[in-house]
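Data availability (excerpt). The following record was deposited with the supplementary files.
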Amino acid sequence: MTEPVDRLLIWWLRRGRYPWSHLRRWLFERGYLRKALPHVDSLEDVEACLKQLTWTMDGPWHLFDSISYPQTVWAKQKDDCDGFAILAAKLLAQWAPETNPVLVTAMVRPMRMSHTVCPFRQGDSLWYLDNYTSRKEDCQTYADIVAKIARGKRLVCWDVVAPDTLETLEFHVV
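Predicted structure:
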């Protein structure tokens, strides 16, 4: 039987997080859409931009984890892992659309250790940006990446999301 906290995490990732992020963006972040993002010409440029950000937890006005616009993250120069991932995805897509960046979130227990990264195609492999560091590992599937970011914690569920629309492309309960 699934524990209540696990059921909450599954519901949140499957049904709550992305509608909440859309609503929060519409209410509080529309003004940031005019903010220009930096021009990047390489993966190293993407990493250099991400290294200018400060990692911080979502504040109390987020009520619960949400994904900001990449422009908001760049303007504020701080966010948590999903802010790093959404900005990385946008910069990668501008530089090299064929990298096909996505967001992958692993919901684990303890909850505070849940994490979002930005996987992208590099030849026949999947690499990923983990906050400001690129992980150039020979992953073949998103599940391989999830196993690496879960790092032995108890995995509850995970998803793959399109960064431009926050549409769920894959959802898995473990």
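Summary of structural features: The chain has one domain: 4-173.
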